[in-house]
User: Which sequence fits this backbone?
């Protein structure tokens, strides 16, 4: 079984809504461990075409973009430099909350014979939850690094990582996961 580390929505534009000075160093530690162990590191960013053609005005999360059509700043899909990809890392662009929706993630996983995903990202109640549910429905083996996920609501993060996610994934910490590599 081939495992990959999924690093999701760590764009400065996203992270600015989730202030936590300790998050990026923790995530960088997990990324370094994955690279040392020879695991593929796959980054997932949310992004849209100019004019936001992929976004319906009825979409509660992204619909305002379809109406206003503001120009996306060039750095909108940039990954935070503290956890920047290296040359062999894969970058996936998604069009919705889940890493699978509107992206070629499934194709990349199948081509690489990747059957085990270790999930990290911002936010626990957004991309991590949506991706976990879809990945579980695709029969992938899943691990969630609870301290490499971030959410504005600590209670929601705790409920998801302690009560919801364990029904479909192994939930652990970066330190424990590193020992298993």
Assistant:
């Amino acid at each position: 079984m081939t495992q990959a580390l999924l690093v999701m929505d760590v764009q400065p534009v996203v992270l600015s809504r989730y202030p936590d000075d300790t998050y990026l160093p923790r995530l960088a530690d997990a990324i370094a461990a994955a690279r040392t162990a020879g695991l593929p590191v796959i980054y997932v960013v949310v992004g849209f075409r100019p004019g936001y053609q992929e976004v319906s005005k009825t979409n509660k999360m992204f619909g305002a973009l379809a109406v206003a059509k503001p120009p996306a700043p060039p750095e909108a899909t940039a990954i935070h430099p503290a956890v920047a990809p290296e040359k062999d890392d894969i970058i996936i662009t998604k069009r919705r909350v889940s890493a699978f929706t509107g992206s070629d993630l499934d194709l990349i996983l199948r081509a690489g014979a990747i059957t085990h995903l270790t999930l990290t990202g911002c936010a626990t109640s957004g991309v991590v939850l949506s991706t976990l549910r879809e990945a579980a429905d695709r029969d992938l083996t899943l691990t969630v690094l609870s301290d490499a996920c971030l959410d504005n609501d600590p209670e929601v993060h705790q409920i998801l990582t302690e009560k919801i996610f364990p029904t479909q994934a192994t939930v652990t910490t970066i330190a424990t996961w590193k020992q298993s590599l």
Remarks:
- Helices lie at 12-15, 23-36, 63-68, 105-111, 124-137, 154-164, 174-180.
